[in-house]
Amino acid sequence: MKKPTAFGRKNGLLFWLFVSVASSWSRTAGYAEAFNPPAAWDFYAKALVTKPLLTKSLTACGTNAFSDAICQKLLRDSNSKSSEEGKSKFDSRRLIENAFTGLVWSGPIAHIWYSLLFGKLTVQIKEPVVSLVTQIILDALIFSPVTVSGYFAVRSVLEGSGFAGVKDKLKTRLVSSVLGAWKFWPAANVINFSLVPIPFRVLYLNVLSIFWSGYLTHVNSKKIATSPEA
Fold it and tell me: The whole model's pTM is what?
């Protein structure tokens, strides 16, 4: 019998992690049904009400993993066309770390922030247009820098670079990433904050984060040249 390869063991770990959290989610939500689209949506909607933090965290975990997989696939295909060495290996550890970041950071911080944004921070504003503009501005000025900083911090810790890695990434990547967020999220949030029901706004964010997380994981992974100190 052949011994499992390192790639096989890593993907086995990823599969085990996915099954474990999915099973836990099913139990804590209170019921499980045979899969069909209407039942799946009812299950998810109920979970958003009964276990909102867990549900949003697991959703961010899944979308981060999916986003990273797509990003790696696109980069591998692009590199294979421009390099004689062919495709680079799929980085399973990177995918797992990105998924874990969604679970412990991206999902929870979005849940907490949206509770504040649509609660204490703007609930007193009665004019819809003023409320929408205020929410978009607050999201851009507060949430974008915080969530991007936290993303780089968690990824640095998982990668083993510690405080020095966090400091380096914030120094070399934070400003450009926040500027990128300001180009992407305000327009997206016009729809989210005005048309999407509040319980589903983090879901909307998570779906669009498939694209945004792909950008962030690419920025996090690429090497940035720094000029030597004088």
Answer: 0.78
